[in-house]
Hints:
This protein is an alpha+beta fold. Helix content is 31%, strand content 26%. The chain has helices spanning 18-22, 29-42, 73-79, 99-105, 139-148, 175-196, 198-201, 318-321, 337-361, 380-389, 428-432, 443-453, 464-491; strands at 7-12, 47-55, 58-66, 108-116, 123-128, 133-137, 158-166, 206-213, 218-219, 223-224, 243-249, 252-260, 282-287, 290-294, 310-315, 324-326, 333-335, 370-371, 374-376, 391-392, 399-404, 412-415, 420-424. Strands 1, 2, 3, 4, 5, 6, 7, 8, 9 and 10 form a ten-stranded mixed beta sheet that branches.
Amino acid sequence: MSESVEVVSSRESVADPSLTRAIGLHHTLPTAIADLVDNSLDACAEHILVRFVREGTRITGLKIIDDGKGMDAAAIDAAMTYGNKREYASGDLGHFGVGMKAASLSQANTLVVWSKSAGGDAVGRTIESSDHMVSTVKGAEAQAVFESTNPRFPFTAGTIVEWRGITTFLMSADEDEQVSWLETAIDDVRSHLGVVFHRILDGSVRMTVDVFDVAYNRAGPPRVVRSIDPFAYPGTGRQDYPRTSTVELPSGTASITCHIWPARSSQPEYRLFGAPGRDRQGLYFYRHRRLLQVGGWNGLWHARPDYGPARVAIDLDDAWTQHVQINPEKSGVTLDATVSAALRSVLAQVVADAVSTTKSARTRTPKPITALQPSSGFPEDVLDSFSDAFTFDDGQEPVAMQWRVLKRDRFFEVDLKNRTLWINARFRTELLGKRSRDNTDAPIVKALLYLLVHQMFTAQRLSGRQIEQMKAWQDVLVSAMSAHREKAGGES
Length: 492
């Protein structure tokens, strides 16, 4: 892939350079791509392709290709300028006017945009993260890019957003690591787009992901992004759900739709992104059919496993506008005190019904052993097994289990303040035999460690005896880890 373009002019693009630092700061690869897909949908695209570009074993670039209405020279100049917020139509997904630049430059050093409107000439622009200068690309080169692009759908007009010098992709010469990273990235992108745009994908829009091999000058088979509806349960978890409730706000009456999932569903629509379904309890905010927030209680309550089946769909309309602020990455919202109080009052019964649904789903046989409830870090089935095996102490907050880098002489850490049992992430790859970003990985190690130390979370602070006990356990576990490392090295 050529890394140079023929520039015919340049201009300063930034109305306020601080925008480049503030907006897009918290983008991930999937959320950045989703932000660009918003632009494609606003351009009335029917086909949207996310294309990873591979050179040898390395993934060196990414393109978002759509068959929307495209842009002429004036429109692309406006699109590449920070602070030049355009007038949005009533149904547009765009919101801040900086999404394409902020999302792209959060992931890459160079953004190149090629576009062509129906009956117009192809145009191209580039922008660098280092100086924020927008450069105009020679028209003949823009036309050549359009003619050489084969997205597997009619492409007489549309836009290509291209990232070069990507800073967030795995940089490794190891082919196995590259393949593993790419497969994980593709799965993450497809899952995220499938959830965020699930209402739109149920219509006439088609989204795909492929990998283009530069050496062979062709793309691999397209992988379709399928709709993943967080509310598509085959049967409700409670008889009187789903139900619509009204929320009285100073700006008017708003409505929400409350759902209770079956407590032990194995549906992918419940286990979003492969995580336990209870991890995605809470509020789902939509704007123009686009999902802005995938669960969470926005400070109304702390998440608990017993609240897991509860999900609430909220479509933002004029009544909500002055009370809800969308974050720059369009991956969450902030509520003001007025709407928070109103929602808490309306949703109290929903949370109570979720608790009742969860408890009724547990095995009814007597369980003489009491334990603290784990809240996260395990696969759904393991969390259910904890529920079946133990009576939970309702007077204690649940305990999360997570990875974090600790000192080298520690295998774990008991964090009473944050109710979290940390495992040393230094040992993660060695324990698993591979890199992992799955929060529910290593279930055997986690279960054994949790059973060993969970009772320590019942106290306000650790006693001297408990500290000495944990130090002895740490010494043995770290020594066992060293032995594991030596044995693995000897066998390789």
